[in-house]
Each structure stands twice: as structure tokens, then as C-alpha cells.
Amino acid sequence: MMEYKGYFGKVEFDDEANIFHGEVMNLRDVVTFQGETVKDLRKAFRESVDDYLEFCAARGEEPEKPYSGKFVVRVDPELHKIISVQAKKDGKSLNAWVYETLSKIVKETTQQSN
Prior knowledge:
Blueprint: E1 2-4, E2 7-14, E3 19-24, E4 32-35, H1 38-59, H2 77-89, H3 94-113
Helix pairs in contact: 2-3
């Protein structure tokens, strides 16, 4: 995975064409890049992000932010009830409880992988 200016690129290798190709993730717009070497690929990724940002500026549009801080999670009603009750027991809103729980899990997972 590649990152530049808060945008992330997913990369694959096409064995038949002998080329790396990628796409900027989590945008409604399709922003792609490619290169024959890792160096070329990195350069093409940065240029694609810059081109996207310049295109948005030229049109007077705000570029899409890949991560707004909001996402919808669908769970079965029983799990919804359980986590809502637990949040109330802890004196927290459901959003605060989920945020703290996810943050704790990410921190533990990150520590284990290092």
C-alpha cells in the first residue's frame, strides 16, 4: 500500500504486461497509475494524486477526502442491543463507546504486529 497527501494507493502486478498498476482507494472518482519499476510506480502515484487535486481546484470543487471520520456499520439487532446496553452501563454514547473500543483493539493489534 502506498500513501501520499492522505490518499492511499492499492497496487497489483500484471505478469502478462510486466507492469505495476494501481488505483487510489476510497474515492468515487477513478484515479489510476502505473509503472514498470517501483520508482516509476511511486512517481506515477504522486503525480496522479497531484493531478486529481489540480483537476478539482480547476473546477472549483473540494477534493474528496478518502476518510471523513464517519462510516456505517450494520450489525444484527441482538448485537446492537448488547453494545448499546454496554455503552449505557459505561456512561457513554454508543459512538463514544464504539470509538474507544475500536481504538483499544487497533492499539493492541498494532503492538502485537511490531
